[in-house]
Amino acid sequence: MKIAPPEEGLLSLNTATVREKWSLREMIEGCARHHIRGISPWRDKLAELGAKQAARVIRDNGLVVTGLCRGGMFPAADRKGRQAALDDNRRAIDDAAILEARCLVLVVGGLPSGSKDIAGAREMVRDGIGEVLEHARSVGVPLAIEPLHPMYAADRACVNTMAHANDLCDELGEGLGIAVDVYHVWWDPQLEREIERAGDKRLLAFHVCDWLVPTRDLLTDRGMMGDGVIDIPLIRSWVERAGYRGFHEVEIFSAQNWWQREPDEVLAICRERHQLYC
Amino acid sequence: MKIAPPEEGLLSLNTATVREKWSLREMIEGCARHHIRGISPWRDKLAELGAKQAARVIRDNGLVVTGLCRGGMFPAADRKGRQAALDDNRRAIDDAAILEARCLVLVVGGLPSGSKDIAGAREMVRDGIGEVLEHARSVGVPLAIEPLHPMYAADRACVNTMAHANDLCDELGEGLGIAVDVYHVWWDPQLEREIERAGDKRLLAFHVCDWLVPTRDLLTDRGMMGDGVIDIPLIRSWVERAGYRGFHEVEIFSAQNWWQREPDEVLAICRERHQLYC
Question: Is the ipTM here above 0.90?
Fold first, then answer.
């Protein structure tokens, strides 16, 4: 099956991709210069301007905020830690509302320090999302669970499959959806079925990068689209068949390669590769 | 729930754990010296003695071969490559028969070079196992699919969950089972259910080590039981509830730590940790 290239206007930049060399303002202006219409800031970058000023600069440059990264990190060893996480999530939701972000991405968190109880951590995630969901609904910010690759189950996110994310959406209801990042889910034999199960309403974001062979670091050795083994057009065809019409957000953690390059070069290559390999 | 310590006599040594400093003969004699009754050789070590002599030395030292590592690696870019894999698997099956191994462990293989077609690779795996299964049955060697962690999907094994392994067993029938390695499957929310589904007949091996936080290398930074976050007794309780009564095989790839230590020290620690953390 030949899959047509994606619509150019659907490219979005996740700020992680150029986080080492550019400020948020430079990223916003860089996107505008490269005709990239979407941006998804991480909160460390957002803090440079604050949500209100960032929202203004983003709007002035004609960009859409395709997501705010990130909320989550719900599990904690004690009640105080869990409460701090809830408070932080409510602040992130408020920032996402100011930015008119399409969603707040949730990296849900792993095992509390010293714990081996992954089932317990998963309950804390469910309860934590449940606690903040009403606030998110009230300000109109959809929450997007991002299932992370199982290699992050211990320390970053104990939701590692679309099936698990869909189960949480079933249980918790309206206002909760999923961010599909091909890097995290490409290997899953249930992926096509679970994307269909999620459907248009739950599919809140689509992140792209590539899985390199070999991968030299668990966190910061992600590849540019086309440099790895993920059949991105195939996965895109599945999310589109499910009704997704949103942006394609490039998020590349790459300490040794892409973070070292000039961001203007990175953005130009993102545009090319989006057309060729997404 | 308090889980009773495992039976001491069920400890087995996978030769990968001490592969850097000992020959196969030293490993066999080391196991006997440390009252470890099971051994699971890798084929590179087996080649030192050849299967027949190895079988004799192992038997003379009173050990059981809990598995032979490994067959598999079925996907290949062309017919010649796939045929070579089948031939190699038949030789591995014959060696396993000579060793009276409880199973031949299959690391099924990843994507052929240059391919992004993981569904196609999975078909090659199914077809490849199907091709060699009759030979395995005829010589009485059960084949054990080892689902590998999803971080190995591209380059080592495209069967990454117990559910997928169970599906293959359903499809291919008698003589095929599963090797459960806690390192590869501990994160899976469907693990308990899929171990139950596998049942006594399919559960052919149980491998233990631990997932370290942080993990510094995708391949060679596995931990000794107790040094990581896996609740091994819980998973053991699941395989035992399903009827498994076989060995607990310690397989640790650890370039910077355990491979550097004196193997006699490593074996003594394996024995302690087996009682404390398995």
Answer: yes
